[in-house]
């Protein structure tokens, strides 16, 4: 029983991905994003396809929302850290997190300095 629990825990730990902000560069309207909080909701969406107002209503408010616009518009949005990235960075992030549909949200939690670990399953927002 203990061995089963150990292997399940190890599987669950390895199932979630890390997001390293030393390797992923996100741009805010005027600067490069530097993580300061211990938790974020990472939202990947397209401002051409989705209304951000409707999306953020479906995300819990217990951590800041880090919105990555794959349409690459740079906006100033209240109560949201609105970011964009180069297309190569966006593709790497989508492939690494195994995202097949947008908009999606995932909670990430600081693991070490700029290294964050996925803290929830990836959820497609409908």
Task: Kindly describe this structure.
- With 126 residues, the chain is of the alpha/beta class.
- Helix content is 23%, strand content 27%.
- Strands 1, 2, 3, 4, 5, 6 and 7 form a 7-stranded mixed β-sheet that branches.
- Strand 2, helix 2 (52-56) and strand 3 (65-69) form a beta-alpha-beta unit.
- The longest helix is centred in the first third of the chain and has 14 residues, at 2-15.
- It is globular.
- The termini are far apart.
The proportion of strand residues reads 25-35%
Globally, the shape reads: globular
In which range does the helix fraction lie?
A: 10-25%
What is the structural class?
Answer: alpha/beta
Uncertain spans: none
> What is the count of β-strands?
7
Radius of gyration equals: 15 Å
Please outline the major beta sheet. Answer: 7 strands, mixed
Task: Look at the structure and give the mean pLDDT.
Answer: 90
Through-space gap between termini: 39 Å
Helix run count: 3
In N-to-C order, the SSE pattern is: HEEHEEHEEE
Structural key phrases:
126 residues, alpha/beta, 7 strands, globular
Helices and strands in order, then pairings?
Blueprint: H1 2-15, E1 18-20, E2 39-45, H2 52-56, E3 65-69, E4 80-83, H3 87-96, E5 104-112, E6 115-118, E7 123-124
Parallel strand pairs: 2-3, 3-4
Antiparallel strand pairs: 1-6, 2-5, 5-6, 5-7
